[in-house]
Amino acid sequence: MQAFTVEQVRRLERAAMGPQDDGTLMQRAAAGLAAVLADELRTRAGHVYGTHVLVLVGPGNNGGDALWAAARLARRGVRVDAVGVLGTPHAEGLAALRAAGGRVVGTEALAALDAYDLAVDGVLGIGGRPGLPDDVADLVGRLADACVPVVAVDLPSGVAADTGAVPGAAVSAAVTVTFGVAKPCHLLEPARARTGRLVLVDIGLDTSAEEPELDAWDAARVADAWPWPARSSDKYAKGVVGVDCGSETYPGAGIMATYGAVHGGAGMVRFVGPESARATITANLPDVVFAPGRVQAHLLGSGWGERADGDRAVADAVASEVPGVLDADGIGHRPDRLPDSWLLTPHAGELARLLGIERSEVEDDPLAAVRAGAGRTGATVLLKGATQLVARPGVRTVEVAVPGPSWTGRAGSGDTLGGLCAAVLASGRPAHEAAVLGASLQAQTAAAHPGPLPPHVLAERCADRLGAWWQERHP
Ligand SMILES: NC(=O)C1=CN([C@@H]2O[C@H](COP(=O)(O)OP(=O)(O)OC[C@H]3O[C@@H](n4cnc5c(N)ncnc54)[C@H](O)[C@@H]3O)[C@@H](O)[C@H]2O)[C@@H](O)CC1
Ligand SMILES: [K+]
């Protein structure tokens, strides 16, 4: 699924509308919205006729969509109460709702909130500034307390459309009905969690001339794109990963990185990390070799801690003209510029350090930060976290890995993730694909095996996940 910024959406809508807005797009939006609302009522209440719906109406076209859709419901026998919560509601929409028999009421005249089967959030759309005025936030909070499910129009009011930030009060929707294209807030945490189920209504926008802001992968695309070995693939075709991770202080990072590379399907893994990790690796992964030699992807940096020869280790790996993954402490040892065949895998704190900004700035606008990371270093960057973003230097579109459960975020997960990405990289795939595939595999595996599994056990399950996908594709 692709997402486009507010500025792009405005451009797309203008192109579809022509010189004069004759209301056609709003009618398409309202028709699609009304159909989803009717489906929700049927699912939740068992019928449409006679149900009771509350519509929260803001001052812009988002409220207009909600009012026109509510008019359609009112004509089908739904009892609609609309309440203007901000400014002056869309005049034609209001007239249409009244003509269809809907009530327009003040907040003081609302029925007991638990009498409503559904609420429609038509407060703010893509013209909204993040946050909600206190009285609106209060009503939204009382609806949540009364367990009234909310269908958001275009986006949950209060979230930042372009960044997914939720700096103040915002609606939490069960369903969000968006028009034409998805917006970044639908795909980026924390706004994504407030979006609920996302339904896209076609209003006839032609996106072919716009480069998307985001390109979000789904599980089927990951499975299709995985570098499945051909019948004739030997270990070198699958790829050899050279792991230089861990330290005497953090031997576990070297072990977990190796688990990732092995279970991500590398043809061979050479471990050149610390002595302290080798006995455990041999005992658990006897296929790993310790002799230096040919590799097709490097994996460096996880668990290095302070490493005196870190600059040299990274420089030598880059000079070998083989791609690589540079993680954690290794990122601080990067040369000024890296080729885009190299993948950096920072979390928010490491990316902030790289950019010389506060961690909170990365968290507030991860999209801008991950792009800046790629621009600054020349490398491909995977920003780890609740939403995992992949940016390439010189490429506008940021890719979004398939999300997983929050169990995955724990010590060591990043080490195994680096290994998974390095395994894909060694097979000859470009760094951005290695990043999306590795991150998505780990997330999908965690989703299929919920629970707080230690990262090396989750890495083993990744191999099971790959095996299941393989069997589906090679029956
Ligand atoms: N432009 C188009 O052709 C279409 C637009 N559509 C709808 O129109 C929406 C965008 O409409 P608008 O541009 O009117 O924008 P909004 O409906 O988002 O509302 C913007 C208005 O709200 C006020 N406002 C913004 N943030 C506020 C805040 N935090 N507190 C108080 N007031 C605030 C602004 O001053 C402005 O008056 C879309 O999200 C979509 O729902 C759809 O009908 C499809 C077609
Ligand atoms: K809304």
UniProtKB/TrEMBL annotation:
**Entry EC no(s):** 5.1.99.6
- The residues listed in the UniProt record as binding K(+), with positions renumbered to this chain, are N62, D121, S157
Q: Which SUPFAM superfamilies match?
A: Ribokinase-like (SSF53613), YjeF N-terminal domain-like (SSF64153)
Q: Which residues bind (6S)-NADPHX?
A: N61, N62, G63, G64, D65, G125, I126, G127, G128, R129, P130, G131, D154
Textual note on the cofactor: Binds 1 potassium ion per subunit.
Question: NADP: present as a keyword of the record?
Answer: yes
The family assignment reads: In the C-terminal section; belongs to the NnrD/CARKD family.
Q: What is the official name of this protein in its record?
A: NAD(P)H-hydrate epimerase
Q: Could you tell me which species this protein originates from?
A: Microlunatus sagamiharensis
Chain's gene name: nnrE
